[in-house]
Specification:
The protein is built from 4 helices and 4 strands; from the N terminus they run αββααββα. The longest helix has 28 residues, at about 5-30. Helix 1 runs parallel beside helix 3, helix 2 (about 65-90) packs antiparallel against helix 3 (about 90-115) and helix 3 (about 90-115) packs antiparallel against helix 4. The chain has a 4-stranded antiparallel β-sheet with strand order 1-2-3-4. The two termini are about 25 Å apart. Helices cover about 60% and strands about 15% of the residues. With about 160 residues, it is of the alpha+beta class. The chain is globular, with a radius of gyration of 17 Å.
Amino acid sequence: MASGSSLWVWLAWAAVVLIADQFTKVLILGYYQLGDQTPVTSFFNVVRVHNSGAAFSFLAGAAGWQRWFFTVIGLVAAVVIVWLLRAHAEQKLFAFALASILGGAVGNVIDRLLHGYVIDFLDFYWGNWHFPAFNVADSAITLGATCLILDELLRVRRGR
């Protein structure tokens, strides 16, 4: 079992991710109408997109049940992650990964509860091809998932 102080460090990181996510979304809601975009570089726009589905708009066209489905998944994931953090807070890379995912998941759950969709605004593209728009929460979840993979690869390597 980890010390309580190390658990709080990871919960604080999750809170930083959550605050950054929600702050940027408030800015987008305040300054952009749905579909507005601002070119920033030759490969990046700031846009306002509403995603009622999951990653890459998976199930966005469903009849509305997906809002509650993904909300429940996010809440269950948050509970499991906090439980894992309590047990493994001393494992820095693993705990960083979990806390990043936690902050991102809660950020997107808040969007689903408040708006019925997730607010996305980062639009990277090449020519006419656009990567699906995403947000700070999605970035943190992706970073966390990448760190989980790295942590496992390092764990396997140490075990040899």
